[in-house]
Write a structure and sequence with these properties.
Elements: E1 2-10, E2 13-20, E3 29-38, H1 40-48, E4 64-65, E5 70-77, E6 90-93, E7 119-122, H2 124-128, E8 132-134, H3 140-158, E9 160-163, E10 168-171, E11 178-182, H4 187-198, E12 205-210, H5 213-222, H6 225-230, E13 234-239, H7 246-252, E14 259-264, H8 269-277, E15 279-287, H9 302-307, E16 311-313, H10 320-331, E17 341-346, H11 350-355, E18 364-368, E19 376-377, H12 381-384, H13 389-399, H14 407-416
Parallel strand pairs: 11-12, 11-14, 12-13, 14-15, 15-16, 17-18
Antiparallel strand pairs: 1-2, 1-4, 3-5, 3-7, 3-18, 5-6, 6-8, 9-10, 17-19
Helix pairs in contact: 3-4, 3-10, 13-14
Length: about 425
């Protein structure tokens, strides 16, 4: 079967190509990919090429398909897996398989599978690792957000605290405690706020910081203090540039006790150090943001490590259980990560989007692989709609949905956009 896909050949060398996929083996599955959301990790992989830990050394001769946050439908199932999967089943994929200790992952390492392809051949190891996950939601874009949401969930699960004097670790944030999300008005931060409000292990106080007023106001309009209060969470948004002394102000919100859990969503030295400074006793600092600088470092107060038992953790993605949880919470309406999406485009928008991702403002960029469409900000739809009726209708749908991407918008776009 022929497919169009974006393939990686080397540093900043990605190409939109059409090629023939191999016939699937008895232990493989052929799938149609509908949507993929673009991840900063893909930008980093493309920037580094074979220097990236997940990209093969011979990528110039055997290019890989990029994209790892994808959702679609199964087209053909090899004999080995017909007892578990059926043609027509929708799916999402957990790319971090850790198959036999390997870092190989769909979207980085494979010639025939990646999110920015119309069709893919899913290799046996994906199923062996239970990383081909059933997805029953009507709309595909939620499936493309399942992987980034799983990373957020993984962050909450990887934090830990101790029973003093017993050397016993308890996993997860402190239930009913103080949690702070720093530099968290971006797409992943929005998901983290949503999860903290609606998960089964909630903090009593949730403080969200950023230095961008517009981003904070958008976050507060979508994830409101009223909604948080309904779920037993006191939610406070803080622009740390707008207060005289950020440390003192943040501490005052906890009556001087400090924070049990602090998450850092940007690899910025002063942000890490501010997070360290507001930790309470047995406080856990989660460094969530992945830096591109291999020598990135920040100061950490080791007096507090010794006497206040403060500590650091981090995670580079979620695991399969985290992703299953993300799918279940979205399917039941407990989470709505649509706020993470700020741009939409077609397969022909991927190259410029991925290469320039660090320069494009906003949140997640959602790609639909079977249409031709430039990358468009949702906030620009109304203006574009003055000359294009498709954009005009999308703008109406988005406006009626509090400015958020939604299932109705996806259905309309797939029905009316130009095929690639």
């Amino acid at each position: 079967m022929k497919t169009k896909a974006i393939r990686l050949y080397g540093p900043n060398d990605i190409r939109l190509e059409e090629f023939e996929l191999p016939t699937i083996g008895e232990d493989e599955i052929l799938a149609k990919v509908i949507s993929d959301s673009v991840c900063m990790s893909t930008h980093k992989a493309v920037l580094q090429g074979p220097a990236h830990k997940r990209v093969p050394d011979d990528v110039a001769e055997n290019p890989t398909i990029i994209g790892h946050e994808f959702c679609g439908v199964l087209v053909e199932v090899g004999k080995k897996w017909q007892h578990k999967y059926k043609v027509g089943d929708k799916f999402a994929i957990q790319p971090a398989m850790n198959y036999k200790g390997s870092l190989a992952a769909p979207g980085y390492s494979y010639r025939w599978i990646g999110g920015n392809s119309q069709y893919v051949v899913i290799p046996n190891e994906v199923m062996e690792c239970n990383c081909l996950l059933p997805y029953e939601n009507e709309y595909y874009f939620y499936g493309s957000l399942a992987e980034p949401v799983s990373c957020i969930i993984g962050g909450y699960h990887v934090n830990y605290h101790m029973t003093q004097g017993v050397y016993e670790h308890h996993m997860g944030i402190v239930e009913g405690g103080n949690t702070i999300l720093m530099a968290a008005a971006g797409p992943m931060g929005l998901g983290a706020i949503d999860y903290a409000i609606h998960c089964d292990r909630k903090p009593a106080l949730l403080v969200v910081t950023d230095i961008d007023t517009a981003r904070l106001e958008r976050a507060a309009s979508i994830l409101t203090v009223e909604e948080a209060a309904k779920n037993g969470v006191t939610l406070v948004y803080v622009n740390t540039n707008a207060v005289e002394n950020a440390h003192d102000y943040l501490m005052s919100l906890t009556d001087g006790k400090g924070y049990d859990d602090a998450f850092v969503y940007a690899p910025v030295k002063p942000v890490v150090e501010l997070a360290d400074s507001v930790l309470g006793k047995d406080g856990c600092l989660n460094f969530f943001a992945g830096p591109t600088n291999a020598a990135f470092s920040a100061l950490f107060n080791f007096y507090n490590v010794h006497y206040n038992f403060t500590h650091v953790c981090g995670n580079s993605g979620g695991n399969t259980n985290d992703m299953i949880e993300s799918i279940e919470m979205m399917s039941t309406g407990k989470l709505n990560p649509a706020a993470m999406i700020t741009h939409v485009g077609g397969l022909d928008a991927v190259i410029d989007t991925v290469i320039n991702l660090d320069k494009i403002p906003g949140g997640k960029k959602l790609i639909y692989n079977h249409i031709s469409m430039p990358l468009v900000a949702l906030t620009d739809l109304a203006e574009l709609g003055k000359t294009d009726p498709m954009y005009a209708e999308l703008a109406k749908i988005i406006e009626a949905n509090n400015g958020l991407w939604c299932g109705e918008a996806e259905t309309y776009l797939l029905a009316h956009a130009k095929a690639i």
